[in-house]
Amino acid sequence: MDQSPHYLPLRKKKLAMTDPDAWDVLESPDTHYGFLGTGGVPEEGNVPYVIPMNFVADRDSNSIYLHTTLDADSKRNRSLAGSPRVCFTVVHPDAAQVNDGSGLPCKFSMRFRSVMAMGRIRAVNSLDERARILNMLMRQKAPHAKLTMDVQPPHTAIATILRINVEHITGMNKP
Q1: Are 112 and 172 contacting, i.e. CB atoms less than 8 angstroms apart?
Q2: Which end of the chain is less enclosed by CB atoms within 10 A, N or C?
Q3: By residue range, what is the domain housing residue 27?
Q4: CATH number of the domain to which 134 belongs
């Protein structure tokens, strides 16, 4: 029986983001890709598997959508077939190593904003929904692109869109 997980709170509470701030990072046009973590494939002993993915976030539906390939035999797709539970992580691109000014080699720290979302993933089958998501992807992640038309449902027949229904989201901000 599949039980709902209990998520532990962040250890460094002073670095915790609010949920709206975490969604802001996910929806930022500067955050272009994230990393999808899965439970792995049986042939490799279910060693966790992580892959970078294009995505668009939609806080209104509490979802993250991934645009991917159709290849059912891919390691990613075989891993997802074994378990729909996934983790998706992004690090905003303004992350950097920072020095405290002392010049000492051990006095560096990391400035970052990161978000981790956990949930269950499934395929989006509706052509209309795929078109809506692909258009949202272009508007959110390429807002300055000069497009001559929107993606239309018939053009999405070969697209694969996966939806993560976000069950838990957490973010950290270390200025």
Answers
A1: yes
A2: N
A3: 19-144+151-174
A4: 2.30.110.10
Structure tokens at 124: 């989006």
Please check whether residue 1 lies inside any domain of the structure.
Answer: no
- pLDDT tens digits along 39-63: 998 889 999 999 999 999 999 999 9
Within a domain: residue 9?
Answer: no
Which stretches within the chain are classed as H helix? Answer: 19-27, 75-82, 127-141
Report long-range pairs for 20-23 (Cβ below 8 Å, ≥24 apart). 20/59, 21/171, 21/173, 22/115, 22/117, 22/169, 22/170, 22/171, 23/57, 23/59, 23/169
Residue 98 pLDDT level (bands cut at 50, 70, 90): confident
Closest CA to 133 of 110, 149, 156, 101: 156
Please count the structural domains in the chain: 1
Query: Letter for the amino acid at 50?
Result: V
Instruction: Report whether pLDDT(138) > 50.
Output: yes
Instruction: Kindly state whether residue 71 falls inside one of the protein's structural domains.
Output: yes
Decide if 4 is inside a domain: no
Give one word for 164, left, alpha or beta, with left for phi > 0 and alpha for psi -120 to 50: beta
